[in-house]
Amino acid sequence: MVLVGTPNVGKSVIFNRLTGVYATVSNYPGTTVEVFRGTCRIGEEVFEVVDTPGMYSFMTITEEERVTRRLLFSEKPDIILHVVDAKNLERMLPMTLQLIEAGLPVMLVVNMMDEAQQIGREIDIAKLEQLLGIPVVGTAAAINKGMDLLKKRVVQYVKKRAA
Q1: Residues 9-39: pLDDT tens digits?
Q2: Best CA proximity match to 102, nearest among 127, 73, 82
């Protein structure tokens, strides 16, 4: 399981929630300069979880983006969680489309749903899932909201792909 997304969307918070392992979480873009790895147990399933440096596009420019892209293709993860900020969803969906077009096993995680609701943004997760043709889960990882559903959907998706 690989977490990808721009800086400051909550990838490291989700990593910490899934693994129970501390990774540096900062509000400064580009501070996750290393790849963090941990293990997540969901029921009987055990997953390696990888927290990648922030990237703005699948079309690589920075060294961090090149590292993430190489990791996605060389390690062939069972699932890629593209974590996006619910407050800035429109700006982040182009990368989702790039991941889908590359044929990668992607699930969209619309994080910070609580913050989006506080500013009056309502996101129709079911409609988004229908339009994109991939699983979509809404979370507020900082307050542990939606994490159980995320885990459930990850297992369902991985089992479905393996069948």
Answers
A1: 999 999 999 998 755 443 333 434 577 888 9
A2: 73
